[in-house]
Amino acid sequence: MTVSSNKMETKNLNFFYKSFQALYSINLPIKRNKVTALIGPSGCGKSTFLRTLNRMNDVIEGTHIEGEVLFDGTNIYGAGVDPVELRRVIGMVFQKPNPFPLNIFDNVAYGPRIHGIRNKDELMGIVENSLKAAALWDEVKDRLNKPALGLSGGQQQRLVIARVLAVDPEVILMDEPASALDPISTSKIEDLIHQLKANYTIAIVTHNMQQAARISDYTGFFLNGEMIEYDVTNRIYTTPRDKRTEDYITGRFG
Ligand SMILES: Nc1ncnc2c1ncn2[C@@H]1O[C@H](COP(=O)(O)OP(=O)(O)OP(=O)(O)O)[C@@H](O)[C@H]1O
């Protein structure tokens, strides 16, 4: 059996907040072990789209979708899919770092404990590996019992990424993960994203086009709820096919 290069894929995806349609017939692949960037002006539907990929919009009253979101070929909106388990496999990182008001260790151990892991050594192994994978271990290994909220913003964001990694996801969705951070922390997150794609599939919303160009393999350009163009990132930035993409990436609007 050949494994599809699409880890995820949306098919004719429409999305509604009550009667307001926020997404129009989106067909977008999320390639396995690649970084896919979603770009476009404010309000074009990037975050809404990202949240459809792990059913995060389900919790907003009055929303509904049409079409399909495939994960390894299975529709995540189909009968029998458990949204809680789905959000473990397809984890999410938000714009503002949101560690729990717990110590560093307990933040990372939180998910594994919920999934029933109680053995101290096993938890320690998971915490260490997750913090290493999130490029934070060296900075925090001597203060795992200190409050997570005492970390810098950039460290908090890497801690949140470690928390996501601790439950062994396959896809990581990131909604402007570096936009609240200083340039040095931003560059650490970008380096981290680059490392993570060896083991995970990543989709990222960003306002920062230089960032999208630096870190992504594929880019989808959104405008007014439609996906105007999708291609390998280099092509989007050098020879876009649609005039609207060109106008956006050359800074004519947005
Ligand atoms: N909870 C909500 N209820 C109703 N409408 C919403 C809700 N969230 C978003 N919208 C609307 O859906 C559209 C798309 O919003 P979305 O946040 O997905 O865009 P975006 O491209 O991520 O914008 P930004 O870059 O500013 O975050 C906008 O018109 C927005 O006002």
Order of helices and strands: EEEHEEHEHHHHEHEHEEHH
State the CATH class.
Alpha Beta
What's the CATH superfamily, by name? P-loop containing nucleotide triphosphate hydrolases
Main beta-sheet annotation: 6 strands, mixed
Shape: globular
Query: What fold name goes in the CATH topology slot?
Result: Rossmann fold
Q: How many strand units? A: 10
Strand content: 25-35%
- Look at the structure and give the mean pLDDT: 95
Distance N to C terminus: 44 Å
Q: Give me the side-by-side strand order of the main sheet.
A: 6-7-8-3-9-10
In DSSP terms, counting alpha (H) and pi (I) runs of 4 or more, how many helices? 10
Instruction: Indicate the percent of residues in helices.
Output: 25-40%
Low-pLDDT regions: none
Output the structural class. alpha/beta
- Ligand names: adenosine-5'-triphosphate
Count of the separate structural domains? 1
Radius of gyration over all CA atoms, rounded: 18 Å
* CATH architecture label: 3-Layer(aba) Sandwich
